[in-house]
Specification:
The structure holds 2 protein chains of 2 kinds.
Chain A: H1 2-32, H2 40-58, H3 61-85, H4 90-113, H5 143-153, H6 158-176, H7 178-188, H8 190-195, H9 200-227, H10 238-248, H11 253-272, E1 277-278, E2 282-283, H12 286-302
Antiparallel strand pairs in A: 1-2
Chain B: H1 9-34, H2 39-51, H3 54-79, H4 87-105, H5 111-140, H6 144-167, H7 189-195, H8 208-225, H9 227-237, H10 239-244, H11 249-265, H12 267-276, H13 287-297, H14 302-325, H15 332-347, H16 353-362, H17 366-371
Classes of the chains: A mainly alpha, B mainly alpha.
């Protein structure tokens, strides 16, 4: 019994953390280049809608994912156009993207599918299936090993592993490549990057493009792996939670991963503890667990005092001096 | 980069916002056309729904009331140099404050005591909810945008917790409190008019509309006609200058957010005391975010906010009416338009300025006089 519980907890944590990881990485890339990105939520939402709409109409997983990434990249570029090219307020632009996405997805959904903003479910062959469907039952001799490794770690679809791998990729990109050095520099001291003859705008647009792809993957995951259909506001604050995870991880990919796993775990626990009475504790208020990621983030932010954790040029539009 | 040619003041205050609003409407119209509907027909249905009848207009003013409160909330914070995304959470807490007072006192005390107490509680709860992020920003340097976002979620889960576990009416299936006693009813317009013998179609429009108008005037007087308001605006335009002038920016941030939160909290008077008359979930329904659009369109000025609130009130009421007439039209078109307004009037406010400037300076006579 215990090993089955442990296995399902691990599995569920990974599943719920995957969109958070993808979005948090997207946030890391944008913000390390100096662009605040509150629009994670909206980009993920619109990407989820695109994945569902294209998945339903074409029946192709690849096209659905391409559409999701495409729309998220377009929204990222819109953010870049407003804030990088025209030096508009980055927070305001992000909020605008979130609100446009929450409205427009429903408008288009109602107009195209006439189901009150929902899309029909994408077909079973479009959905992402576990890579190794027999994994959970592959170790009959070792119950603990089977539950934790087979059920907990190996029973997932490809996107879960892609998300985990991307943590390493983003880390390598940021800390082990010349491009990563430049990306981080443009978020700390854009004047210096400019003086070295590298385009500040180019780097920030590049970061936003990668950010869009990652948000697109997160949105596609919600539809292709989690819910099968798009529903109004189905992201339900996950973009903001990813933002919190990014801050929790001090704008670094690997610590952000741990934060995402923590938040995913809390989410899992909140669902499992609904209405359960624990010995000595009584009924645990599920809402308290649900609010914990946000509370922890506020506490952490309050403890940041006097330490330079966020990128130095974050939120400051770059004005080239002549 | 070369400095853009400055716009004359009248163009900056009047023409540019109108051009940006027109852009937002144009893009929204394009979306309507793209989904196969006639933008002209939608617009005329909207106008008729919002202004065409006494009942429709009352609904418009009811929505306007909430948007005035949240718009003013965002604007006051903005004058203090802060971006308050937390009006949603502060309004939630305001409703909670009003609701708790109503559930606690309305059985025993008369309306003349209960209603003022509810107003005070809604403002105080909203202010308290805003003061935590304000303190963290002013004294610990935590980014207020992030903390207010987090506080929106915390407010929501707090309300869910209280409604599910504490305040839910026994035996009720829905997640809401017991209905308030009558002493906690803020009279609606048709109830108030019926008392003096005038018949008016029933609508949710209630006396908090007058409260909103008073708040608008008070915010104007405070910001532009008192020393305290001057201090607040000084911090908002330049914290460094304020410091040299002996004004403590941290104090002013706290004051700005307290007022901002109190204004947002008063949404509770409209939605909880005036309309629902019980505590329930989702009564704010995104009004905190609409407040951002309203404040941006109204350029953070009370008069502008009044106009922008009326526009958004009309859009929400009109949008609902269009939804009845045309089933394929979603009311969320209004939410979309709200996003476009924030994009064009806020984030991209000065994208069109150089072109507009060239246009204006190209007209002989006008440009010179404007910039002189």
């Amino acid at each position: 019994m215990d090993e089955i519980l442990a296995g399902t907890l691990i599995a569920s944590t990974l599943r719920l953390a995957t969109p958070l990881i993808l979005c948090a990485l997207a946030g890391v890339l944008a913000e390390r280049s100096g662009v605040i990105d509150l629009g994670l939520e909206g980009k993920m939402l619109f990407a989820a809608f695109a994945a569902a709409a294209v998945g339903v109409t074409t029946g192709s997983t690849l096209l659905a994912m391409l559409a999701a990434c495409g729309i998220a990249v377009l929204l990222s570029w819109l953010h870049g156009f407003a804030t990088v090219s025209h030096r508009g307020d980055q927070v305001v632009s992000g909020m605008a993207i979130n609100i446009i996405a929450s409205g427009l997805t429903v408008v288009l959904g109602v107009a195209w599918f006439a189901q009150g903003g929902q899309t029909p479910a994408v077909g079973g062959d479009v959905r992402l299936t576990p890579l190794w469907p027999g994994a959970a039952a592959a170790f009959p001799g070792a119950p603990w090993f089977g539950a934790i490794v087979g059920e907990g770690l190996l029973a997932h679809n490809a996107m879960v592993y892609v998300a985990l791998a991307l943590v390493g990729v983003v880390w390598f990109l940021l800390y082990r490549t010349r491009l990563g050095l430049r990306l981080r520099a443009v978020g700390e001291n854009p004047q210096m990057v400019d003086a070295a003859g590298v385009s500040v705008l180019g780097l920030r647009y590049l970061a936003l493009t990668m950010n869009g792809v990652l948000c697109g993957l997160a949105g596609a995951y919600l539809v292709l792996a989690q819910s099968a259909a798009f529903g109004p506001n189905m992201t339900a604050g996950r973009g903001y939670m990813a933002l919190a995870a990014m801050i929790f991880g001090h704008w670094r990919p690997v610590p952000a991963l741990w934060a995402c796993l923590l938040f995913g775990f809390l989410d899992t626990v909140a669902v499992r503890l609904q209405g359960v009475r624990l010995p000595h504790v009584g009924e645990v208020p599920v809402q308290a667990i649900q609010a914990l990621p946000y509370l922890l983030t506020v506490v952490l932010l309050a403890a940041f005092i006097g330490r330079n954790v966020s990128p130095q040029a974050l939120g400051r539009p770059y004005v080239k001096e002549r | 980069m070369s400095a853009p040619v400055a716009l004359p003041r009248w163009a900056d205050v009047v023409v540019l916002p109108l051009v940006n609003l027109a852009m937002a409407l144009l893009v929204a119209g394009a979306v309507v056309a793209m989904i196969g509907q006639d933008p002209g027909q939608v617009l005329s249905l909207m106008i008729r729904g919002a202004f065409g009848s006494a009942r429709g207009f009352s609904y418009t003013l009811y929505y306007t009331t909430t948007f005035i409160f949240t718009g003013l909330a965002v604007a006051v914070a903005a004058h203090g140099g802060l971006f308050n995304i937390g009006a949603e959470g502060q309004a939630t807490l305001g409703g909670l404050g009003a609701g708790l007072v109503a559930l606690w006192l309305a059985e025993t005390l008369p309306a003349a005591v209960v209603l003022p107490l509810m107003l005070v509680a809604s403002a105080a709860f909203g202010a308290a909810w805003a003061l935590v992020p304000a303190y963290l920003q002013a004294y610990r340097g935590s980014h207020i945008v992030i903390t207010t976002i987090m506080f929106n979620f915390i407010a929501y889960t707090l309300l869910v917790y209280l409604l599910v576990n504490v305040l839910k009416a026994p035996g009720s299936m829905s997640v809401e409190s017991a209905p308030f006693a009558e002493a906690a009813f803020l009279p609606t317009l048709h109830e108030a008019l019926a008392r003096i013998g005038i018949e008016w179609p029933s609508s949710p429009l209630n006396l908090s509309f007058i409260l909103a108008l008073i708040a608008t005037a008070a915010v104007y007087l405070y910001l532009w006609r008192t020393r305290a308001g001057y201090r607040l605006r000084t911090v908002g335009s330049s914290a460094g200058v304020a410091e040299y002038a002996g004004i403590r920016p941290a104090h002013q941030m706290m004051i700005a957010m307290a007022i901002s939160g109190a204004l947002a909290g008063m949404v509770g008077m409209n939605e909880i005391a005036g309309v629902n008359r019980r505590l329930l979930l989702d009564f704010v329904a995104g009004a905190g975010f609409t407040g951002i659009a309203v404040a941006m369109m109204g350029r953070n000025h009370p008069a502008g906010i009044l106009v922008a609130s009326l526009l958004f009130g009309a859009l929400f009421q009109g949008g609902a009416e269009v939804g009845f007439e045309m089933p394929s039209f979603s009311r969320d078109m209004v939410v979309t338009l709200q996003g476009f307004v924030i994009l064009f009037s806020g984030a991209m406010a000065y994208v069109l300025a150089p072109a507009l400037s060239r246009l204006i300076h190209g007209i002989p006579g006008i440009g010179k006089r404007g910039t002189a």
